[in-house]
């Protein structure tokens, strides 16, 4: 008997309207009917990113705790990567290539390995277009994941680039020439990776969309594994996932989706919100109330829209909830904003974890100054999703210098200052005591480090000038490090084994290391593992005579380029569960993706024109890969910046419950006058200086 046709459920509403809660209600209701989860079928649940996944996970487990083993939530990338690995034999059958076991390349490694293909073909026109070799490589490689998530075959990228004249809109012949170069680079990179078993994110998305999703055997497997599908925030999903959802709908699988018209945070990366919206036509639609009752969007979103977008300046009652902080210079604005926050926290009007500072873009100066002022006042502050090159860690630099002393040919990569830093850190004792203090480490590096291109080494301590004194701790620590280096040199171990030995010998019992140090060492180990696996593959296919010494030189150079990044302020989740977060410092994009809410928000650089772009991170040429643009010249919608800014305003207002402060300086960091879209709003708001005299910042009951 045929299964009765059931309409998918489509839940739509603005930010904080309860869409996720409603989706979880449907999941809980379904699971009470399907109690036999011992079989292989289970619900397939999607969330657009890790932050939303965490929120959805908590909501689901709070209502369906008995189903913990059966519940698994995927981001689009995680699901695609898993499926390609599980069903790789099906893909190999269609590719008709020699079977291989796939190895996934990280983005920094992808950039490093693809550079030779690009460098050999770059022309001055391409370098001028993108502002340098590194950016040109990044933009070209970004075309692969964009095309993959749009389910566009790699062969079609060339045609769409030609029709759009995106590379050179004024010279068709030059555009075709540059398109041919881009196509050659992508084609060579594609075949080179598949011949060696390397998978990048872009290649993986291509394999899933072009070879796996359309495979009937795979489609049957999907239907047999999952009895239902739930996807939260479809406005942030790529078109490739839209095709997957439509497959489930066509197969009459129970489906529930949510959509936020004011969201679309990932538009410009790989999301295609308009294409995902086409699913709505096949669904039973539920529209939730515009906004929750406890946020500023309820009463202020329309007024903000009229002022900023429509430029209507009617009298508005801001209900003592919106204020401005205005200064002449940006440096003064940072200081005044920080001091205002400090005073309000010290007077118990607000807690640090109830404050967010949000900017369209945060330069290093602003970031440092906010951290400096708030740390000076002992107020915790947390930069959201902060990323720094791994090489900025002294611990990482010390490990690299130590490896340079063990493997031959690294002499050009080691400097005396680095040797001194290494001696200090490697001699650190329990409790944070130095075996070799920085002064004596500098003397040892000056007198006892032998510079040699092929075999740099630490000389016996007797080479130290007789006028320089070494205490007992320094003497013993130096000899221990030197002896360990010499013993390890003769052991003939692999690079990964040596890195593990370094961690065990010098860092395992040092309690002075904090969580960030251990996180850096972990990242270093993961990067090393991936790099040397790749080197082994290259040795098989391209460089049979390459030695471990050669590979170590390449790795040290690769690490020092700074392309491998990490969070310098990682949260220890085993400890942070009992600790409150501090003041959040974030860009617009970071804050919206993190799905956070605060009592007070500070919109920093409110007069900047970057607000009109929504603080978005956009990949070059993303418009070309939206389903509506396929095969057509690029035609953008009317006033796209206004549409994006409207969504940003609604979304941010929906995530603050008490007060909003627009922070504006007449001059930007470069000394230029600011007059962005929010500028008129900053001019009509009461300032905090005026409001402080009226004592309007007391704690609200």
Model description:
The chain is of the alpha/beta class. The protein is 49% helix and 11% strand. It contains 28 helices and 18 strands. The chain has a 6-stranded parallel β-sheet with strand order 3-2-6-7-1-8, with helices on both faces. Helix 2 links the parallel strand 2 (42-46) and strand 3 (73-74).
What order do the helices and strands come in, and which of them pair?
Blueprint lengths: L8 E4 L6 H15 L8 E5 L3 H14 L9 E2 L1 H11 L1 H8 L7 E2 L2 H13 L4 H7 L2 H17 L7 H8 L7 H25 L1 E2 L1 H12 L3 H10 E6 L7 H12 L3 E6 L13 H5 L6 E4 L9 H12 L13 E6 L2 H17 L8 E5 L4 H13 L4 E3 L4 E2 L4 H13 L9 H11 L11 H11 E2 L6 E2 L13 H20 L3 H13 L7 H27 L6 H13 L4 E2 L6 H4 L6 E5 H7 L3 E6 L36 H15 L1 E10 L13 H6 L3 H6 L8
Parallel strand pairs: 1-7, 1-8, 2-3, 2-6, 4-5, 6-7, 9-18, 10-16, 10-17, 11-16, 17-18
Antiparallel strand pairs: 12-15, 13-14
Helix pairs in contact: 1-2, 3-10, 4-10, 5-7, 6-7, 7-10, 8-9, 14-26, 15-16, 17-18, 18-19, 21-22
- At the fourth level of CATH, the homologous superfamily of the largest domain is P-loop containing nucleotide triphosphate hydrolases
Question: Number of DSSP helices?
Answer: 28
Unreliable runs: 633-637
Tell the overall outline.
globular
Q: Assess the beta-strand content as a share of residues.
A: 5-15%
Summing up helix and strand content along with how strands pair, one would put the structural category as alpha/beta
Instruction: Report how far apart the termini are.
Output: 61 Å
Helix content: 40-55%
Largest sheet: 6 strands, parallel
Task: Describe the strand arrangement of the main beta sheet, using strand numbers.
Answer: 3-2-6-7-1-8
CATH hierarchy, class of the largest domain:
Alpha Beta
Number of domains: 4
If you average the pLDDT, what whole number results? Answer: 87
């Amino acid at each position: 008997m045929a299964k009765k046709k059931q309409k998918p459920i489509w839940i739509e509403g603005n930010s904080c309207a309860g869409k996720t809660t409603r989706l979880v209600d449907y999941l809980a209701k379904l699971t009470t009917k399907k109690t036999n989860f011992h079989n292989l079928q289970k619900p397939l649940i999607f969330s657009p990113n890790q932050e939303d996944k965490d929120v959805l996970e908590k909501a689901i487990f709070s209502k369906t705790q008995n189903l913990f083993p059966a519940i698994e939530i995927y981001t689009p990338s995680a699901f695609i990567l898993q499926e390609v690995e599980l069903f790789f034999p099906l893909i190999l059958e269609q590719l008709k290539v020699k079977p291989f076991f796939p190895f996934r390349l990280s983005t920094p490694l992808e950039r490093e390995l693809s550079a030779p293909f690009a460098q050999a073909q770059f022309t001055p026109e391409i370098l001028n277009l993108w502002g340098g070799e590194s950016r040109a490589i990044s933009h070209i490689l970004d075309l692969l994941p964009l095309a993959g998530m749009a389910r566009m075959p790699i062969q079609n990228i060339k045609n769409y680039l030609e029709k759009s004249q995106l590379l050179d809109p004024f010279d068709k012949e030059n555009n075709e020439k540059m398109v041919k170069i881009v196509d050659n680079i992508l084609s060579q990179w594609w075949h080179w990776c598949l011949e060696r078993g390397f998978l990048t994110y872009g290649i993986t998305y291509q394999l899933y969309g072009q070879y796996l999703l359309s495979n009937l055997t795979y489609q049957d497997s999907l239907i047999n594994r999952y009895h239902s599908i739930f996807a939260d925030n479809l406005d942030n999903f790529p078109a490739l996932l839209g095709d997957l959802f439509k497959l489930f709908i066509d197969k009459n699988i129970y489906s529930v989706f949510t959509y936020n018209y004011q969201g679309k945070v990932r538009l410009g990366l790989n999301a295609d919100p308009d294409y995902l919206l086409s699913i709505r036509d096949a669904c039973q639609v539920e529209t939730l109330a515009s906004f929750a009752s406890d946020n500023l969007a309820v009463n202020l979103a329309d007024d903000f829209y009229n002022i900023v977008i429509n430029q209507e300046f009617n009298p508005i009652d801001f209900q003592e909830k919106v204020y401005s902080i205005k200064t002449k210079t940006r440096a003064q604005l940072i200081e005044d904003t920080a001091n205002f926050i400090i005073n309000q926290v010290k007077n118990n009007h607000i807690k640090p974890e109830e404050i967010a500072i949000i900017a369209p873009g945060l330069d290093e100066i602003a970031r440092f100054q906010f951290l400096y002022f708030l740390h000076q006042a002992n107020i915790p502050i947390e930069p959201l999703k902060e990323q720094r090159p791994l090489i900025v860690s002294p611990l990482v630099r010390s490990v690299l210098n130590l490896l340079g002393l063990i493997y031959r040919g690294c002499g050009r990569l080691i400097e005396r200052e680095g040797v001194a830093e290494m001696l200090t850190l490697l001699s650190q004792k329990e409790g944070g005591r130095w075996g070799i203090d920085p002064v004596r480490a500098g003397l040892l590096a000056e007198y006892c480090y032998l510079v040699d291109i092929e075999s740099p080494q630490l000389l016996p301590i007797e080479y130290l000038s007789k006028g320089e004194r070494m205490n007992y701790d320094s003497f013993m620590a130096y000899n221990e490090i030197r002896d360990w280096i010499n013993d390890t040199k003769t052991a003939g171990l692999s690079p990964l084994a040596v890195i593990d030995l370094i961690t065990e010998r010098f860092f395992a019992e040092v309690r002075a290391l904090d969580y960030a140090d251990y996180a850096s060492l972990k990242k270093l180990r993961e990067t090393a593992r991936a790099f040397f696996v790749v080197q082994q593959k290259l040795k098989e296919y391209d460089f049979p005579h390459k030695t471990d010494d050669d590979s170590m030189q390449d790795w040290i150079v690769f690490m020092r380029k700074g392309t491998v990044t990490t969070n310098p302020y990682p949260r220890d989740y085993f400890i942070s569960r009992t600790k409150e977060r501090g003041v959040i410092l974030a860009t617009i994009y970071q804050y919206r993706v993190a799905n956070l809410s605060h009592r007070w928000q500070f919109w920093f650089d409110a007069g900047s024109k970057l607000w009109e772009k929504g603080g978005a991170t956009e990949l070059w040429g993303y418009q070309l890969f939206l389903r509506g643009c396929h095969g057509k010249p690029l035609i953008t919608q009317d006033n796209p910046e206004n549409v994006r800014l409207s969504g940003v305003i609604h979304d941010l207002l929906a995530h603050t419950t008490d007060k909003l402060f627009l922070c504006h300086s007449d001059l930007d960091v470069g000394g230029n006058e600011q007059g962005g879209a929010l500028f008129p709003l900053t001019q009509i708001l009461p300032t905090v200086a005026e409001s402080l005299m009226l004592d309007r910042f007391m704690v609200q009951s």
